[in-house]
Design brief:
single chain, alpha+beta, 2 helices, 20% helix, 33% strand
């Protein structure tokens, strides 16, 4: 059984894009050719999402390639601490405990893994704050 990695990513990103116009989600639905997740000059607030696919063992070695584990890293970026927390709140509300619909798969609820301290950055000449949330989606053959 093959696991459709893009279908999982589409489901996760779709949940975030469904929040509406108050949440800009990167990568965009129609990425440009630069390969950048966040385009140069993007203004906060926004969330930049990285999805890492993997496989989980469900007690049997034979299940190793059928149980999918997707680690979701959400960079919730705002122009200050308050704005970064507002983005984080929208992300958590959209993803936490949700069971995304993925054809041919049975989803477990998306779970919280970690959230390191927010990181302010003024290297570009203006303040941006990055609040990272690490979440996990696990799916089984459905």
């Amino acid at each position: 059984m093959s696991i459709d990695i893009q279908a999982h990513a589409d489901a996760i990103l779709g949940l975030l894009r469904a929040v509406g116009p108050d949440l800009t989600v990167y990568p965009p639905e129609d990425p440009d050719d630069t390969g950048q997740v966040v385009p140069d000059g993007a203004d906060p607030p926004y969330v930049a999402v990285h999805i890492r696919p993997g496989f989980g063992l469900a007690g049997r070695l034979a299940d190793a390639t059928t149980n999918a584990v997707f680690d979701i890293t959400c960079h919730c970026v705002g122009g200050n601490d308050i704005a970064a927390r507002a983005v984080a709140q929208m992300v958590v509300d959209a993803l936490l405990d949700v069971e995304p619909v993925i054809p041919g798969r049975q989803s477990r609820p998306i779970r919280y893994l970690d959230s390191p301290p927010a990181r302010p950055d003024e290297s570009t000449g203006r303040l941006v704050v990055d609040q990272v949330y690490l979440l996990r989606l696990e799916t089984l053959p459905g």
